[in-house]
Amino acid sequence: MSDAEARSIGPSRGPTAAGEAGPRVEVLSARDVPLGGPRAMTVRRTLPQRARTLIGAWCFADHYGPDDVAETGGMDVAPHPHIGLQTVSWLFSGEIEHRDSLGIHAFVRPGELNLMTGGNGIAHSEVSTPATTVLHGVQLWVALPGEHRHTARAFHHHVPRPVALDGGEVRVFLGSLAGDTSPVPTFTPLLGAEVTLQPRASVTLAVDERFEHGLLVDQGEVRLAGTPLGRSDLGYLGPGQATLSITNTTDGAARMILLGGPPFDEQIVMWWNFVGRAHDEIVRAREEWQHASDRFGEVMGYDGDRLPAPALPGVAIRPRRNPAPPNPERHAMATPAAPVVRRVEDKHRYEILVDGVLAGFTEYLDRDEQRVFYHTEIGDAFAGQGLASRLVRQALTDVRDAGKRIVPVCPYVAGFLEKHDGFADITDPVTPDVRHWLREALH
Ligand code: MN
To answer: Three-class SS of residue 29?
Structure first.
């Protein structure tokens, strides 16, 4: 899958601590991220986020579906590059056709691991097949450690056997769990497994004490070490646990993805589909992709053009710290100057800047006296600081000052207006007519 340039905003509860004795579980909530392009597909992203960049070497976790492909159009990601990482595709339903510049042509199917090593550079395309009616799965990335991050392209396929537990089942696609070990090699110790639990069942899994773990809930509601987790929540537990206790609190089956690994102690720089160590390295990789360098090779058989890289941000891409400062005092000390919101007329957007750095924007088009807001984004490094709300409030206030009216096509702006009074008198409904006009205008 290809990452978007900047990430859209979803509600985030932020990390919360367990309110009872036992190991502390942090609940990392997902944000909705539309993948953009012609597809309407939206994913729920739990990694990276402000509170946590990595779990072991796992650096990216997108959960999607179950999506009715007749409605969303399914997945169609044109050839795009990766460096410094491995991608793990794991499906619960549907089928994806994978093609890469190593020459691999594979089908990703439920219960089957497809691990692609980007190393120094690879390109691939991912398209859901015509036979797919429901698309449902996860896309995970693994950061490669410094000494191996320029390794050669590779691809591994593995179908783990289901291992029965008392009350459930696991499928171990990377690492070891419940007596099964994946034969697929990794560059750092890792755990990746699908766990299913029968209704109301509890299991206790023996795990490596050196590992930190993340439990991503696909279906149902569970408790991890006593802490409730809902759909698309990622429950995080630090190292030092010899066992993980998981309970299904529903009358239906529960399904989860369990991730683990020893804390990854290198700082990484992530931008678009690249994982590196420094800004310049990302700039070079982007340049090489734009100029069709041999570094990434060619994807054969995809019907369409390659995905162009988005524009670089106007400032240095900063390394991600992991984890975020744990106590609010340290956080307060690092608080930057008040953000600034401005309208940039020729770009048809309002921007929010933090310390002079572009942190996000909300885009609009004017239709007579109406200002039609259609898209809002906050850069990933700035998520979780309330910037979207501040940006939109000031933008809407500016609309009022300009004597115009608001049309909230953007789901974030619509959600803001539902929660905040003060703009109802200048808000117009989103009619099919407006949607049609907008589609034409953006075309
Ligand atoms: Mn990809």
So the answer is: coil
pLDDT digits (tens, 9 = 90+) for 404-437: 999 999 999 999 999 888 899 999 999 999 999 9
Cα(203) to centroid of ligand 1, in Å? 34
**pLDDT of residue 120 exceeding 60:** yes
The tokens for 66 are 């179950």
CATH code of the region 340-442: 3.40.630.30
**What's the gap in Å between 104 CA and the centre of ligand 1?**
14
Helix (H) or strand (E) holding 376: strand 370-378
pLDDT in tens, 333-376: 334 467 888 998 888 999 998 877 888 999 999 999 999 999 99
Distance in Å, CA 406 to ligand 1 centroid: 37
Dist. CA 118 → ligand 1 center (Å)? 9
- Specify the length of the chain in residues: 443
Higher-confidence position of 321 and 267: 267
Parse the chain into domains and list their residue ranges: 25-290, 340-442
What spacing in Å lies between the alpha carbon of 16 and ligand 1's midpoint?
31
Which residue, among 200, 202, 228, 201, has the nearest Cα to 215 in the 3D structure? 228
Tokens of 409: 């096509």
Q: How far is the CA of 287 from the centre of ligand 1 (A)?
A: 18
**pLDDT attached to residue 22:** 67
Å from CA of 176 to ligand 1 middle: 26
CA atoms within 13 A on the CB side of 79: 23
Secondary structure of 274-335 in HEC code, one letter for each residue: EEECCHHHHHHHHHHHHCCCCCCCCCCCCCCCCCCCCCCCCCCCCCECCCCCCCHHHHHHCC
pTM: 0.71
**How far is residue 180's CA from residue 96's CA, in Å, rounded to a whole number?**
26
CB atoms within 5 A of ion ligand 1 belong to 1
Contact 7, 27 (CB under 8 A): no
Which class would CATH give 25-290?
mainly beta
CA of 29 to the centre of ligand 1 (A): 23
**Average pLDDT along the chain:** 89
Rounded CA separation 25/384 (Å): 19
Which of 30-44, 73-87, 408-422 comes out lowest in average pLDDT?
30-44
Q: Please write down the long-range contacts of 230-234, taking CB distance under 8 Å and 24 or more positions apart.
A: 232/29, 232/30, 232/44, 232/46, 232/63, 233/27, 233/28, 233/29, 233/30, 233/46, 234/27, 234/28, 234/29, 234/30, 234/46, 234/47, 234/61
